[in-house]
Each structure stands twice: as C-alpha cells, then as structure tokens.
Methyltransferase FkbM domain-containing protein (Caenorhabditis remanei), 314 residues
Amino acid sequence: MRRSCKLLLAFLLLVTFVDLFKFWCSEDYKDWVEAEQDEIDLKSVFKRFDTQDVFTRWHTCITENLLWIDNPEKFWDDFMFASKRCDLRANVQQIGIVTLKNSDEMKHVIFPKIYNFGPHNLFSIGIGRDIQAERQFRRKMKKLGNNVTFYGADPVSYINDDLYSQIGTYFPLAIGSHSGISNAMVMIEDGGYSKKSMIHVDILYFFKNLLNVTKIDNMWFDAEGAEFGDGFFDIFYRNGRFDQNGIDICQINIEMHKHQDYPERKTQFMEFVKRLIREKRFGIFAGDQYIHNRMFLFNFESQYCLRKFLNKFG
C-alpha cells in the first residue's frame, strides 16, 4: 500500500475514533443507551390503582414501624428499613414511581397521568455539580409531550452556573428557612466540603416574591446543614407557611445530611417524619441511607397534585 494511502487510512481511523469518543461522552449517547429504560418508565402513566387503598396500607405500616421509636439515633438508623418494608407491603410502585439516577444518588418522580397537563416545573435546591437526573427527567417528559421549566439554586456558582444554565435558570443563592447570614457546609472547588458564611434567602420569599410560583410540581432539596434552620420544615406541614400563602407542593426529593456540626439533625429528622406521618398528608416513600437519609414525598392532600399525577378527581 502506498504511503499516501496509509496516511489517509490512519487519518480516517483517527477521525472516526474522535467522533466515537465525542458521541460516547455526549448526552446523545446517554439518550441512546437509556432509550429502552425510557420505554419502561413511560408506561408508568398507564398504571391504574386505588389511591386511597395504597396510601392507607402504607400509612398503617409506617405508623406501626416508626411512631413508637423515641430515640433519635434508633429512628435515624431504622428509617430506611421501615420505609422499604412499607413500600413493599403497600405496593407503592403501582402509583407510578420512577427512579432517576444521578452520579451518586437516586431521585424519584411520578409523571403526569394526563397528557399535556401543564405547565410543569422542577426546582433543584442544591445542585452539587450534577444534573444527570434533571436531564433524564427532561428527556422522558418530552417523550410524553410535556415541557419542563427548570430552576436551580446553589450558593457556589463554580461549575453549577454553566451546568444548570444548559437546562434552566440558575440562581447563585442558598435557600433556607429564613433570610440572613449563617454558616453553611458547601462544596468547594476540589469537590470537598467547607464551612463558609453564606447569605440565605427565605424559601417562601424565593417562591412567592422572586418567582411568583404557587404550584410546585417537583422540588429536589439537597442541602448540607444550615438550610434546615428553625422553622424550615414548617413549609411541609398542614397550615404551615406554604399553606398560608396558597402554595401547593406535590413531589419532594429531600436529603438530610448527618454532620458533626449539626448534632441536633437526627432529632429534627425524627420530629419531621413523625409529624408527617401523624398529619397523613404526605406519603413518605423510597427511604434510602448512605450516611445521609433520603426520601421521596408525595402530597396526597392537594387536589391539584392528585388530579395531575394520580389522575384522581373528586
């Protein structure tokens, strides 16, 4: 083979390799790999079930397994096992819970059961340089004919700004129970965590005054500590700050970090979960623990949420 032909062949092989590498690193490749899973997940919108029966069986189980525990350490450690046990007993997957994967954790969503019941929104409170799950959600919702408006807030703009701006609107803010300045554990440039003084914006002010939002379809809350100040969990309670201001919130993925700088965290967690159980407003599903405790909440009291995501009218 002539030298020129060999060089041309080598060049073509190099170009092909570069193109394949670019495709392998692209979102198109991920979409292609996950296309089969999309088909499985999208079938969740056709599931039919008795909403009240699922919630009642789950609530009876979680009450029996958790409400008697008074020790915060034991409650923290037992939560995941009780959650998984009760999810199975009530067969909560039949309401259409779909799992999305970030690089180191999972998020859970329920797709709208009614075609083009929009608009749709998703709020990422704490981005952590990772929007894989948001991208998956956007892709699956588009296949269902639904567009989603994304809002992301994280006090560290390094990487997060450029990353989240690819899918939605980024806010360089820390969101918490009250506006003010407090110490917070934040991800720094090397990927570790450091305590820094941060300006926190009141979560009610963020939604009501900055964004003028009264319907929250999905909120993913991943915070390191200071955000869970006095009164934060009030937004989830009956007649709490969101209720008083006419804000409906449907689905929440929330992660509570265990950290030595917040020794009261386990007590807060126990009080929060117990109150949710007693109020019988939110279902608490998909409990998971790897150092931190994670859960997925769905609002069974809001008629807006029931109509949109569980196709329940009444």
In short: Residues 1-33 form one domain. The radius of gyration is 22 Å. The chain has a mean pLDDT of 86.
